[in-house]
Q: What sequence folds into this?
């Protein structure tokens, strides 16, 4: 396919009403890529249609009682529940803190809903709630309300957690994929793919041992430092679907091209090695403590310098630029001087990563 | 056991640190009764300890940006997903709307997190989101943010939904179990137990056919009318564990006796009949559109008159009074002039009722 044909296809797809072709839910519908996007647009947006929901950002901005709040939710079904660097508990707290943070909010309060499988060890539940409490303390938030349901053996998988969060917007700024424009710079906050690869190794699906841990962490301070330092267009945490998915959504929403310089993308050798074994591209692998930010191109160096002063941003790097053409596409300039299109994720190479 | 011995046991239990005796989660931990209470106190409150969480109300009252908000969450795992009178979708929306309402808040915004099982029919998901949208429209709230995860076949049960809600407290009143005092009147908003019995019949576990539907409904208008009319101490929706559980929590929190007049409790004959077949007491059976309110005893008639003017309160009735002694107990005066103690629910006769 030529680039023109690709663009034409994208344009046609955009004009079409999104439609779920499958009659039954597949794992790909939960992967954060193309199928998830279609399901969200064709089923959820179709049903709930309203102006707060429709930006489909990580959180919803609410006007309540004169203040501006952000409200967000995420369900966590990660398997295994415990893995190097964390567990489903801190993953859930950090994930919700991060969803609030990347919307520009100061995270304040969380709720937690547990769906437990009959037979789940109470000691494991204690370990999970302990991690949640520690993560909440680290992020300066409180878990203020919750719920517990129990399902029969074989109707769950130990423990699923759904966290929701409320934060407050204290800055008078507007962040969003559609704010991005040509000339902007694309930054990632640190080495990518560590959470996803850690989970794959913890499942024993790779016959390797690696000195690697999940990157799960609360990024609210790092995001706040960035917002205080330079003009920022958008921030998104690169979870399911990884950096590639975030950049595709930016390219499509802002009708710009995102050109990524492959050698500039920070990836640890062990992650690269594991991805090669798995046949994965690290750009699609989930992080749980890394984000993508697009900033005014004139302030790219200042942005990176600011981020590197924070422990969670030590590996921050400019990885690409925003151009006008071809709109809607993410292009990767490889180490060998070639260029290829980085599409939205199809299928689910890494189910239940978060 | 004499009443004195019962009181002594309760007092001893109160002084003891709550402790989960079981090593593994059982269905009873999700039933809303004694085991759920112990799990919440011994594991969740122990881990998350903070002054907003500890009233353990249906929602948390937050001071945000000068306003007072209520924040709540509930996970729904009802089986079957579709039943006479509703489905998991409107159940989830109404449940969260009601949790906000009984805290005295005006419900505003909801989030929805879906955990779908691989193979779940997309048509069923559409039906559920359609019900959610209709219920949200009826209650005047918007679903503004969400999340979808997919788990492998055999790790879920079609569809679980976790809804969270944000509402605003517009009245300058304090509601709570501990506000109840001797002389107050206990009101239920309508016939009880219809949701629970409908679910049991829908499961085919009872070989009866009955003209009965779930009472799932949003009670925010009815609660608001009541709050505007009379001095109200507390309002709680009588879901898992039913009216008996709510009254036990009131009796213990306020250190009062709640004396229920059995013949005054509105129960439809078909519900009574089904409960007899199942060996259940309707006082423990879940409702999803009924609530318990305790009001100033001098205003009991006005309260009931106000409620009966609303379609969802047509069956409202005073069912009991609050007395000083014996503190911490719920007593039932039966039709035959006897008195028995109505304890917290033990075990789970009706798993996955909501």
A:
């Amino acid at each position: 396919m030529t680039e023109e044909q690709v663009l034409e296809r994208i344009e046609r797809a955009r004009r079409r009403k999104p439609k779920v072709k499958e009659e039954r839910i597949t794992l790909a519908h939960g992967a954060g890529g193309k199928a998830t996007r279609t399901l969200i647009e064709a089923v959820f947006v179709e049903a709930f249609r309203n102006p707060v929901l429709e930006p489909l950002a990580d959180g919803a901005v609410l006007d309540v009682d004169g203040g501006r709040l952000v409200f967000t939710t995420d369900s966590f079904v990660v398997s295994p529940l415990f893995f190097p660097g964390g567990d489903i508990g801190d993953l859930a707290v950090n994930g919700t803190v991060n969803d609030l943070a990347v919307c520009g909010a100061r995270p304040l309060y969380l709720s937690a809903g547990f769906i437990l499988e009959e037979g789940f060890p109470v000691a494991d539940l204690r370990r999970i709630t302990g991690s949640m409490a520690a993560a909440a303390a680290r992020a300066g938030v409180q878990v203020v309300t919750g719920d517990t349901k129990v399902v029969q053996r074989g109707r769950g998988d130990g423990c699923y957690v759904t966290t929701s969060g409320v934060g407050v917007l204290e800055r008078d700024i507007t962040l969003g994929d559609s704010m991005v424009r040509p000339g902007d710079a694309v930054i990632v906050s640190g080495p990518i793919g560590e959470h996803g690869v850690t989970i794959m190794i913890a499942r024993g699906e790779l016959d390797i041992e690696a000195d690697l841990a999940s990157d799960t962490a609360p990024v609210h301070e790092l995001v706040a430092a960035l917002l205080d330092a330079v003009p920022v267009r958008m921030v998104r945490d690169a979870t399911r679907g990884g950096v590639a998915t975030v950049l595709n959504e930016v390219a499509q929403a802002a009708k710009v091209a995102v050109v990524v310089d492959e050698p500039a993308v920070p990836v640890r050798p062990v992650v690269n090695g594991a991805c090669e074994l798995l046949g994965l591209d690290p750009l699609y692998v989930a992080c749980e403590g890394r984000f993508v930010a697009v900033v005014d191109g004139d302030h790219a160096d200042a942005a990176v310098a600011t981020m590197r002063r924070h422990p969670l941003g030590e590996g921050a790097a400019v990885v690409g630029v925003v151009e006008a053409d071809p709109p809607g596409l993410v292009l990767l300039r490889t180490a060998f001087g070639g260029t290829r299109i980085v599409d939205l994720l199809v299928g689910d190479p890494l189910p239940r990563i978060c």
User: Anything to note?
Assistant: The domain at 177-341 of chain B is CATH 3.90.650.10 (Phosphoribosyl-aminoimidazole Synthetase; Chain A, domain 2). Residues 112 and 163 of chain B are 5 Å apart (CA to CA). The first strand of chain B starts at residue 60 and ends at 64.
